[in-house]
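Budget justification aside, the reviewers requested a transparent look at the raw inputs and outputs of the sequence design task funded under Objective 1. We therefore reproduce one unedited record. The lines immediately below are the structure tokens for a 447-residue chain.
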């Protein structure tokens, strides 16, 4: 590859904090709030002009993994900072009640919860500002400066030029393990063959006949897609359509983006560029299909396409513990638990989504050690890039467990700094006590 030589330069140090969080998705939101509430001067860096991560930028409009099916009923298992977001959304009239997510195998299933994206942005702003977090939007992280075995500063690009943000503790909530990767921590990507979960371009519709769509359209969606074979270009044969918080508005999780038959690599800028236009092309085709063939959508119009393609999987750190799909499905307990998750394995394979629901009590515990990258003393990781197998990541990547992980690592970063410890040597029992005191649910030994 040809190169261009850049002159050496001194990068201005524009801010310092005790805890620096990269990424404003659910993991980053919860991490920043928790760190600040635990007494650390906290700064959050976000590339967009709003928070929410894939939940807003990719317009997921659905919280997954907040709930689990326990003893015959749906119960919320992710609490704490997640409750603060839900309360604010409810006050803004931007939150639906939990809706059922059925198990194709006939099991008890679980629930998800739809929200309005604009309300989520407002709720997240209010939560972080009320917690005293220093919010820095429109900041794209491009590298780091190391000192000994830890990170000294994050390098960012802004409209005002290149800058550096120095911290004592760092939290990687980038979704792509950017800080861990730049710091040289071991990372994995995809499975042994390089396969990664297919991404999706989300879209929303308005003027939908809710009653007909719910009773005649949604239950028959897969059959209607199959009947349309040959008349439309619909690469994904199963999908999800659900009503939103306001009458006549629906979300569509239908597209499946590939390039020359292979999944998109969301950590490759060229793949991302291709994926955006391909995703919008598929949106047009699925929208045409919905209007033509799906009851309730005859008079619908395209309300919005997501600002960016929805990425499900890129890099994962290889940490002290690697959470597996079997750990999830068997509802495994961990001594270093810092939260819970009840979401099934949601594996986006060619043409279809494969669902594998949890056995037994309905949730597993999340171990603290999946947030600890190898070889970087002052870094914690939370979100879809935590230490998992690909199967484990197919469950743990959704918003519910990301909130739980984020709250845990934000609290841990502040506590480690106060104790003069590293995250890896932190007293985990003390961390668990603090999380419970702050409203988190770590599991119930009686279940």
């Amino acid at each position: 590859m040809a190169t261009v030589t850049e002159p050496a330069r001194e990068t201005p140090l524009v801010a310092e904090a005790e805890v620096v969080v990269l990424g404003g998705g659910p993991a980053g939101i919860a991490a920043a709030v928790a760190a600040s509430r635990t007494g650390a001067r906290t700064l959050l860096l976000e590339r967009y002009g709003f928070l929410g991560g894939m939940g807003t930028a990719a317009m997921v409009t659905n919280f997954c993994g907040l709930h689990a099916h326990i003893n015959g009923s749906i119960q919320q298992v992710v609490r704490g900072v997640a409750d603060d977001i839900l309360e604010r959304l409810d006050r803004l009239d931007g939150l639906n009640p939990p809706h059922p997510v059925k198990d194709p195998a006939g099991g008890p299933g679980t629930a998800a919860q739809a929200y309005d994206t604009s309300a989520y942005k407002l709720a997240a702003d209010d939560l972080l500002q009320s917690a005293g977090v220093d919010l820095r939007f429109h900041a794209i992280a491009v590298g780091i400066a190391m000192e000994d075995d830890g990170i000294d500063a994050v390098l960012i690009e802004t409209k005002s030029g290149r800058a550096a943000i120095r911290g004592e503790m760092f939290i990687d909530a980038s979704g792509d393990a950017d800080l861990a990767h730049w710091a040289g921590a071991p990372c994995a990507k995809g499975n042994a063959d390089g396969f990664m979960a297919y991404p999706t371009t989300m879209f929303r519709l308005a003027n939908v006949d809710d009653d007909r769509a719910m009773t005649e359209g949604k239950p028959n969606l897969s059959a209607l897609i199959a009947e349309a074979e040959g008349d439309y270009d619909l690469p994904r044969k199963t999908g999800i359509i659900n009503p939103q918080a306001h009458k006549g508005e629906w979300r569509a999780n239908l597209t499946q983006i590939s390039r020359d038959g292979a999944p998109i690599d969301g950590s490759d800028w060229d793949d991302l560029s291709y994926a955006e236009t391909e995703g919008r092309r598929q949106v047009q085709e699925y929208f045409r299909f919905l209007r033509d063939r799906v009851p309730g959508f005859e008079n619908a119009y395209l309300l919005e396409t997501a600002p960016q393609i929805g990425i499900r999987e890129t890099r994962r750190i290889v940490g002290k513990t690697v959470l597996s799909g079997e750990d999830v499905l068997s509802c495994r307990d961990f001594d270093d638990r810092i939260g819970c998750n009840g979401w099934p394995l949601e594996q986006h394979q060619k043409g279809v989504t494969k669902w594998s629901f949890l056995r037994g009590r309905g949730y597993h515990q999340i171990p603290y050690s999946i947030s600890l990258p190898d070889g970087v003393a002052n870094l914690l990781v939370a979100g879809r890039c935590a230490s998992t197998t690909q199967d484990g990541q197919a469950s743990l990547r959704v918003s519910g467990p990301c909130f739980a992980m984020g709250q845990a690592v934000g609290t841990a970063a502040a506590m480690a700094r106060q104790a003069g410890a590293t995250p890896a040597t932190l007293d985990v029992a003390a961390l668990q006590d603090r999380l419970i005191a702050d409203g988190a649910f770590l599991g119930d030994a009686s279940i």
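The CA atoms of residues 67 and 76 lie 4 Å apart. The chain is about 30% helix and 25% strand. Computational costs for records of this kind are itemized in the attached budget.
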